[in-house]
């Protein structure tokens, strides 16, 4: 079965550009990033921690299958994010690396 996510010729014209994996992609302001990913890639829009393909599924933020890196932030649920002009989107393959969180300095008179 082939699913086509191309925009209809009856759809409003695109009014912004986003950068998807270094490619300039036309989009509508406010269109979900997940919809842009579905239209841009044939099939998987990323992969999970054991390299199984993943793509937007529920389109309402419950399943986490649509996560991607948006403007440098990993594990963003793209179905919940509206597109903005100049936004940078990269597919996320595997889990996102955890950022180092600085430990607070201990205060006290134990020393």
UniProtKB/TrEMBL annotation:
Residue segments, region Disordered: 87-111
SUPFAM superfamilies in UniProt: 2Fe-2S ferredoxin-like
Alphabetical UniProt keywords: Oxidoreductase
Short name of any one Pfam family annotated for the protein: Fer2_4
GO molecular function: iron-sulfur cluster binding; oxidoreductase activity
Gene3D superfamilies in the record: 2Fe-2S iron-sulphur cluster binding domain, sarcosine oxidase, alpha subunit, N-terminal domain (3.10.20.440)
Protein's name according to its UniProt entry: Sarcosine oxidase subunit alpha
Lineage of source species: Bacteria, Pseudomonadati, Pseudomonadota, Alphaproteobacteria, Acetobacterales
Gene of this entry: soxA_1
């Amino acid at each position: 079965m082939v699913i086509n996510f191309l925009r209809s010729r009856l759809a409003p014209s695109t009014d912004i550009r986003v950068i998807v994996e270094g490619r300039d992609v036309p989009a509508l302001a406010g269109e979900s990033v997940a919809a842009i990913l579905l239209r841009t890639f044939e099939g998987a829009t990323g992969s999970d921690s054991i390299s199984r393909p993943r793509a937007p599924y529920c389109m309402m933020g419950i399943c986490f299958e649509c996560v991607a890196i948006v403007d440098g932030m990993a594990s963003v649920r793209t179905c919940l994010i509206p597109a903005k002009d100049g936004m940078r989107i990269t597919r996320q393959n595997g889990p996102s690396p955890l950022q180092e969180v600085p430990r607070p300095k201990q205060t006290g008179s134990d020393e």
